[in-house]
Design a protein that fits this description.
By secondary structure, this protein is α+β, with helices and mostly antiparallel strands. The protein contains five helices and 13 strands. The strands form two sheets. Strands 3, 4, 5, 6, 7, 8, 9, 10, 11, 12 and 13 form an eleven-stranded mixed beta sheet that branches. A two-stranded antiparallel sheet has the order 1-2. The longest helix has 17 residues.
């Protein structure tokens, strides 16, 4: 729940970004909320950031990004902005029993007999770090089967996730991510990125001017920024498998 002032500030920032693409200054926010000092704005912004509604972008003045809005402002908008992977409970093709899916992953596929007849086999190509990058995308280790509605046209492969840097996107240590082969990405998509031709990592793809930013979904990890010649995209996330 947001306080009235937090709600007012979030709406004001969101509307200003929609109008001009530039967040308001602290003085403008102070005036809009009729506060006596900018310290009150600092406290409100910190509270909104801690609750996951906004993000302060490093090394940029007045750099605020609205990550999500309360459903009372824009029902359904947050689901469109967040990655909401298709989830297979229990590890289809491996056996094992499932556990409850996180709330941000509404497309749920049960690992039952109905899927087995039409399942598609894709290769598992090793492990990928969702934290500090490690050497990944190794040779094929085994195959898994997924329901055809989880994947679209094109080639797909799977990787086992190691690390916790994407937990706020609903991707946990031990999950198996389903990746569609691709060499390009749209800012905001979660990708398999290769750094310096030797390290692979699962991160959200962003652009910072001419540079590429690989952004974690965990505030404990910093966004890493590279020159465009140091990063290549090897695929985009389309779903995941979760098992105990």
């Amino acid at each position: 729940m947001l306080t009235r002032k937090q709600h007012e500030l979030l709406v004001f920032i969101h509307e200003r970004l929609k109008e001009s693409g530039i967040p308001p200054s602290f003085d403008e926010m102070k005036e809009a909320l009729d506060l006596a000092s900018k310290s009150g704005i600092h406290r409100l912004i910190t509270a909104l950031e801690e609750r996951g509604f906004i993000r302060r972008l490093p090394n940029r003045a007045r750099a605020l990004e609205v990550i999500r809005l309360p459903d009372s402002i824009a029902p359904g908008l947050n689901a469109a902005k967040k990655f909401s992977p298709g989830v297979i409970q229990g590890g289809l093709g491996h056996g094992g029993s499932g556990r409850a899916a996180p709330k941000e992953t509404p497309r749920l596929h049960a690992a039952g007999n109905d899927d087995a007849g039409a399942a598609v086999s894709i290769p598992v190509m090793g492990r990928i770090a969702a934290g500090v990058p490690i050497a990944a995308i190794e040779s094929r280790t085994h195959s898994i089967t997924v329901p055809p509605e989880m994947i679209s046209g094109g080639e797909h492969y799977a990787l086992e996730v190691k690390g916790d840097s994407m937990i706020e996107a609903g991707i946990f240590d031990g999950d198996t991510v389903i990746i569609k082969n691709a060499s390009t990405a749209t800012p905001g998509e979660i990708v398999v990125a290769i750094v310096d031709d030797e390290e692979a990592t699962l991160k959200r793809f962003r652009r910072k001017g001419a540079s590429i930013a690989l952004e974690a979904a965990n505030p404990a990890y910093e966004t890493r920024i590279f020159g465009p010649d140091r990063v290549s995209v090897r695929g985009k996330l389309v779903g995941l498998i979760r098992r105990y």
